[in-house]
Write a structure and sequence with these properties.
The complex is a heterodimer. Chain A is of the alpha+beta class. Chain A has 2 helices and 3 strands; from the N terminus they run E-E-H-E-H. The chains are: A alpha+beta, B mainly alpha.
Amino acid sequence: MTNETPLWEVFIRPRNGLAHRHCGSLHAADAEMALQAARDVYTRRGEGTSIWVVPSAEITASDPKDKDELFEPTADKIYRHPTFYDIPDEVGHM
Amino acid sequence: MKEELFELLIRLGDDHLVLGHRVSEWCGHAPMLEEDLALPNIALDLIGQARSLYTYAGEVEGRGRDEDQIAYVRLERDYHNLLLTERPNGDFAHTIVRQLFFSVFMQAWWREAVKSTDETLAAIAAKAVKEAAYHVRHAAEWTIRLGDGTEESAHRMEEAVSALWPYTGEMFETDAVTEALAEAGIAPDPSSLKAEWDKVIADVFAEALLSAPDEAWQQSGGRKGRHGEEMGYLLADLQYIQRAYPDMTW
């Protein structure tokens, strides 16, 4: 079955104005079937207003072995966090 | 007109309840996880439509019956569903072809019923037409992929089409009930939907490399309560709880 139905990654946009978020994966024969299956598997409770499906094989992922060089250098740069400013209440949620 | 409207609501409600029950039988048995969710989704749409139709039928009848009493405690002869809807699931091909035939018909039916002079029926149609559109899409995409798929899938689809084709003519039958309702602008004349149904099915079949059988002998009787032997088993499953524990609720 998996040869004929490759893996797809599913991204759902919960509301207008928000970004699509990865919510899972599924098997489907092609893009149209993946879109339908995503609707049936991942939007049963009104979760979405838009769906993207992407062939999992098309995703380029970082190598977990590289995590030290990729992510460690940010650990001591606390000045990048917006914790040194007072944010006015009117700005709302950031 | 009250009697005709009640009869129409029972026919349509029975179509949706019986097919909804059939499709729900796939729950936990579908060929892949994705379809194990897709098919019950469709079943729930169909059963939801049946509920609206039965509830309204009970109001039209005015004898205090609610949706459960209409759905669960009638005798087999009192169910007036299309024979197509009670056909057993068979393999996945049979289920998909049955759904395609019925949903293409209902999409055309609901689209007309949105304009009904009966406001309640028009409101039920406005909701159902969107659900039917998705059922058509789901069944049509599968039909195309299975018909134009492997040798085995194509063969199974051909078998399903030839087995179910004799049950399609009943959808377009007219009688005193459909004629009176069409004249009053309450419900579409089913025979007027045949040309559109033929065209949609022909387009899907062309892509699926399937061919429709020549017009041949057609089954009939569902609208008068004459069912195939499978119907009794279906009702036994469907009615068991209400028969064993009358008026029980969850």
